[in-house]
Amino acid sequence: MFYANQGKLREAEKMYVRALEGYEKAFARDHISTLDTVNNLGVLYMDQGKLDEAQKMFQRVLEGYEKSFARDHTRILDTVNNLGILYTDQGELGKAEKMYSRALEGYEKTLGRDHTSTLGVVNHLGNLYLSQGKLGKAEKLYSRTKEGYEKALGPEHILTLGTFNNFGLLYQSQGMLGEAEKMYCQALEGYEHALGQKGIATYVPALETACNMALLLDTQGDVSRAEAMYSKALTGYEEVFGRDHQKCERVRKKLSALQILASERNLSTKAKGDRKRPLYQGTSHSIASRRTKAFKRREGFQS
Question: Is residue 251 in a domain?
Fold first, then answer.
């Protein structure tokens, strides 16, 4: 897991494939060690955006685990949760909700309501409801997650900080933009305190919060700050995933649109100033134009 945790996904893939070949040769396709490696490979494929490959891995793992363990064994529940995340990424929200509900029921029974694994599924389910516009349900689940993480891990733990990002998304969806900005700032400041400037530069949840903040600033017409946030996120994504990953492409398009907007606005402002300048006056009084845009929630940057 070292390479994957460091964001070196290509190196991690090579290591997992090599390990899988070794386990299949030494043991069997359904040996627990083999299936654990298949699971890790599935998580890696999902991080790389290779969703079809990830789905094949997770389905193989689930079938193998179900032959060896009881229905509520944590290995099975972990895989069910992973399938929920995968289906969410694929836009199959009905399937995702079923997976999350099964995982949540199993974790609560096996580990308890306040275990961090349970709270992780609660958080994913909250993200799902937010994407469906069920803001009341999402808020309840986010509140449960935040309170649980604060109790179990403390207010400065990175998982707790991730809940501030999600509340930012919730407030943004409700049109409470000032409150949303506070949440994003709190998350980013906490991540930097916990991880340092070097660590936060490639920590994916922090990069996603930076993207959320950028979209908020863009919506408010603060183009220069939005551009800075997108640039920071893009640099991190490229280091973690590589330049061709879909996350990089998405941020690159948003950044390009912002840069075009800023250029057009500067030209427009200059033209207005030129038209209004009297022949005898040596300076112009430019009129700053402010961009207005219907708010659109950014897709795919949830923690």
Answer: yes
Could you list the residue range(s) of the whole structural domain that residue 209 is in? 184-277+285-303
| Phi, psi of 14, rounded to the nearest 5 degrees | -60, -40
Residue 222: strand, helix, or coil: coil
- Report the predicted TM-score, pTM, of the whole model to 2 decimal places: 0.81
Res. 61: pLDDT tops 90: yes
Quote the number of domains for the chain.
1
Residues 42-51: pLDDT tens digits? 999 998 889 9
Report the SS3 class of residue 7.
coil
Helix (H) or strand (E) holding 159: helix 158-173
Instruction: Report the pLDDT value the prediction gives residue 262, as an integer from 0 to 100.
Output: 74
Which is it for the CA torsion 110, 36, 240, 254, positive or negative?
Answer: negative
Distance of CA 177 to the CA centre of its chain: 20
Task: Residue 17: count other Cβ atoms within 10 Å of its Cβ.
Answer: 13
Contact (Cβ atoms closer than 8 angstroms) between residue 130 and residue 123: no
